[in-house]
Amino acid sequence: MKKILLSISIIILSFSLTLQTDAAWEKEMESFKKQDQQSPPQQGQILFVGSSTFTLWKTMQEDMPEIPLINRGFGGSKVTDLIEHFDTVIAPYHPKQIVIYEGDNDIASGISPEKILENYKQLLQKIRTLYPEIPVTVISVKPCESRKDKLIAMAVLNDMLNVWASQTENLYYLNTFNITLNAEGSPIPEYFLKDKLHLNDLGYKAWARKISKHLQSID
What we know:
By secondary structure, this protein is of the alpha/beta class. It is 51% helix and 11% strand. It is built from nine helices and five strands, in the order H-E-H-H-E-H-H-E-H-H-E-H-E-H.
């Protein structure tokens, strides 16, 4: 009887966590859908998807005026959230390129680099079912003071993403890791908000220069 009750409890907990995950992004997904209805995005833009590092980049288009883009970042997301909400944040847009920033929250949540890479591979497989040949760029996980204890895991993940991309057709790894580090190997305070986690305008501009150059080179 105890085993049956335990099994039921596990099922209920699993279902509850699923509902919580869906509810967490419900408002964001509805907002994206509403934006698309009110102003349908043009096909052939470069799609940026990922976590709050993209969500908070409000000047993304202004910082990269030469890049026609659409930003569908949603804060707090992990790679699995992109898979879960693929039909809302990736499928509708018919982009000419996709740029992904994920892994930051994954590492902070205790997910191993190996598992994150596995999730990334599942995401790419899903992308390829719709867009078999378009370039996909994975941006390296950024170092930051608030997650300095995670720097080793971040570096391991970045190395794994780099190797994976080098072995995969039309997949690119863009190393922005060192852009926000000083000569001592510490995050540059002037590039971050007060939370010491997210980039500020100066940090985004530094990113924009490298990202724009990369995207134009593979266009």
